[in-house]
Backbone:
């Protein structure tokens, strides 16, 4: 998941191919009474796993049969069909989810402290401001650098101190 100025993007990957779902955000909806606008997008960067029904290259008189999809524009019509079908299946599956369980109920088990090596380990609570800041920093690859994780940045980021490395030699003196 990635937050963008225009809204939120969820990206699913299978090899080099991806299916993305965009929430077009408030910028796309000037009227606040309008519902969420979702847009699905499929990117086929590796067409090797897909087939197209055509004659073999260089043999226009041969019988058409299923061949591997080519990377160029020759099989563009088939790419459109495959992408549209993937988008429709994804949106149909998303629309068929009928669950009224709240996110808090789903994550309750995950948000409890546990023990590791005989010591109590802090539970992750995505609703707590400090933990939410950690999750946001992790989700932004540019902010989750080693410098921030170890505290070398001098605390410039919002990663709570308890999640930083305890290697004091790595941190500059304050």
Residues:
């Amino acid at each position: 998941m990635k937050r963008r100025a225009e809204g939120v993007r969820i990206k699913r990957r299978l090899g080099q191919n991806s299916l993305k779902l965009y929430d077009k955000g408030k910028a796309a909806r000037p009227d606040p009474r309008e519902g969420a606008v979702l847009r699905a997008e499929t990117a086929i960067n590796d067409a090797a796993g897909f087939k197209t029904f055509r004659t073999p290259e260089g043999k226009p008189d041969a019988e058409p049969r299923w061949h591997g999809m080519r990377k160029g524009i020759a099989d563009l019509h088939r790419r459109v069909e495959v992408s549209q079908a993937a988008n429709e299946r994804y949106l149909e599956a998303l629309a068929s989810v009928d669950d009224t369980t709240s996110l808090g109920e789903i994550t309750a088990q995950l948000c409890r402290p546990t023990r590791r090596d005989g010591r109590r380990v802090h539970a992750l609570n995505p609703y707590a401001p400090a933990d939410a800041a950690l999750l946001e920093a992790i989700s932004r690859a540019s902010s989750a650098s080693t410098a921030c994780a170890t505290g070398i940045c001098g605390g410039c980021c919002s990663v709570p101190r308890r999640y930083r490395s305890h290697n004091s030699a790595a941190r500059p003196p304050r």
